[in-house]
Amino acid sequence: MKVPAGLTALSILAGADAADTVLGTFMFHRHGDRTPKALAPTNLTALGYEQVYTSGQYYRSRYLSGASKIRGINEDTVKLSQLAVTAPVDNVLQNSAMGFLQGLYPPVQTLQTLANGESVSAPMDGYQLIPVNTIETGAGSEDAGWLQDASSCANAKTSSNSFFESNEYKDLQSGTKELYESVVPAVNGVIGADQVSFKNGYIVYDILNVASIHNASTPSSPSNTTLTTLRTLADAHEWGLAYNASDPIRAVSGMQLAGEILSSLRSTISSKGSKPALSIQFGAYATFMSFFGLADLPAVNKDFTGVVGYASSMVFELFTSADPSSGFPATEDLKVRFLFHNGTASNSSEPTSYPLFGGQSTELSWTDFETGLNKFAITSTQQWCEKCGNATGSCAAYAQKTGSTQSMAGKGGISPAIGGVIGAFVTLAVVLGTAAGVMLVGGFTLVSKKKMAAKGAIGENVEAKA
Fold it and tell me: Looking at residue 142, what DSSP letter applies?
């Protein structure tokens, strides 16, 4: 993704917000530089570690010690109740989260004196131990060649697959054949020559991009112009898989993220800014793209349809312009600001604020922000199951209820399953006669053990699926 240009009228410099009081934030962050997906398992590189660490240092200067410091947050020694950090079960993403936290809360010298007079120094100069909670969303995404490989949402997979049947895809597949054939030698056997095509547009670009960063000389390496063209094609490929305005379920990861943003900021509000003050989630570029589409950010700049760079971050700041000395503000005094930075944020390259939902203002009232996200946010397990069309696992209970209701409505009040049971009883009546009558009069009831087990076992929090 290129850095959006020509938006200075919409930009908000970090220092310009000094009059506002930040009450809490939700941050979504991409991992740092890594090894190529085609050579799984992927690993965070030293460069990637440096990128996320630098980003952590920047957000420390912004939210822990600077003019935009979050109200009441601990500056030097972490208070774990104020912080919520999550990442999928993925080596690159989890390690990126830990590297970021080292920059956010660096070591603090601690010396403890025991009852017997012995002095104990904390290991690693007081390295602060901050847990990174794991979530299912995007598990193994950095080892997955295709962005929906890490999803268990059936309808999202079907929707993404339909991109390969579109005219846009077919035109690009046929029109770029010679270009991809020309870079086969540069791929150098990492993937087969028959796989080097627009169908694997992102994987091809990823292999060559990683090589351009880490290999001083690569045989038959493409020119910068060719690499840029491949990057543009990779952007088109991944956008086609991540978002489609006429089929929103394709952007299920963005829908889930929206639900998590709402949940986190609502918790900040209900706890009056303490739990959590700062939420940080690490995830893959596909979630950025899906959310960008749902929030209508391409209307601001078309660059929002591209793959974001390593260590990119977007932040949702909950703030107020009211006098903070009078306590936590009323709902009508709460506002939200969206900021994004493509690549590693630093004091020399800060995030920029952009308007959401096709609007003009970079500041939204909490009510308008909540209403905007609620238009596409997934906020419960049942909602996820229904949108994804899943009927197994934790979705089984909801599928039974929905399927039973729909079937009865479509058959004049009798579902095929119930009709089968009635037929079985009729047959039984013919064969057993009086015995069947006894069963019917006795009022025997058939109960699903799965349904009984599911009762009370499914919570209303979103289960991470994509």
Answer: G
What would the mean pLDDT of 253-274 be, rounded to a whole number?
94
Length of the chain: 466
- Determine the average pLDDT of the residues in 394-408: 64
Cα–Cα distance between 270 and 453 in angstroms, integer?
A: 33
Fold assignment, 1-107+122-379: Rossmann fold (3.40.50)
Q: In this structure, how many other beta carbons lie within 10 angstroms of the beta carbon of residue 343?
A: 17
- The pLDDT of 136-148, averaged and rounded, is 56
- DSSP letters, 385-436, are HHHHT--SGGGHHHHHHHHHHHHHHHTTT--HHHHHHHHHHHHHHHHHTHHH
Tokens 């970021």 sit at which residue? 100
Element (H, E) at 30: strand 21-30
Enumerate the domain spans of the chain: 1-107+122-379, 392-454
Q: Please state whether the peptide bond connecting residue 324 to the residue before it is cis, i.e. omega within 30 degrees of 0.
A: no
CB 191 within 8 A of CB 211: no
Instruction: Tell me, letter by letter, the H, E, C secondary structure of 424-463.
Output: HHHHHHHHHCHHHHHHHHHCCCCCCHHHHHHCCCCCCCCC
**CA separation for the pair 159, 166 (Å, rounded):** 11
CA atoms within 13 A on the CB side of 37: 19
Higher pLDDT, 412 or 274: 274
Q: Which of 235, 239, 249, 228 is nearest to 166 (CA)?
A: 239
> Which residues have C-beta within 8 Å of that of residue 290, sequence separation ≥ 6?
242, 243, 250, 251, 252, 253, 254, 255, 257
Q: Is the dihedral of CA 41, 45, 48, 52 positive or negative?
A: positive
Q: In the predicted model, is pLDDT for residue 137 greater than 70? A: no
Which residue from 278, 267, 270 is spatially nearest to 315, judged by alpha carbons? 278
DSSP state at residue 363: E
